[in-house]
Design goal:
It contains 2 helices and 5 strands; from the N terminus they run βββββαα. By secondary structure, it is α+β, with helices and mostly antiparallel strands. The longest helix is centred in the last third of the chain and has 13 residues.
């Protein structure tokens, strides 16, 4: 599972054997959240949350939005189309 970005000590991961639509897993602090990227227009949208607080999710979503083009590029490099 390639880590494609670190944000505040959290790993942003794309699994090579994962499914469409384009999404990332954010992992850390014994928590995991999955955000649909909505490439290329954005914004990223929360799909699942397992343990992050609302405040943390808002910060994560903002960080993902800032890096959206790169995240979509990495997804495409691993999986092809979004």
């Amino acid at each position: 599972m390639p880590t494609i970005l670190l944000i505040g000590g959290l790993r942003v991961v794309v699994y090579p054997n994962d499914h469409r639509p384009a999404h990332v897993h954010v992992i850390g602090n014994s928590c995991e959240a999955i955000f649909k990227l909505n490439c290329l227009e954005g914004p990223p949208a929360l799909r699942e949350n397992h343990g992050f607080s609302k405040k943390e999710l808002v910060r994560i979503q903002a960080d993902l939005a800032v890096n959206l083009a790169m995240l979509c590029d990495k997804w495409s490099g691993i999986h092809g189309d979004y």
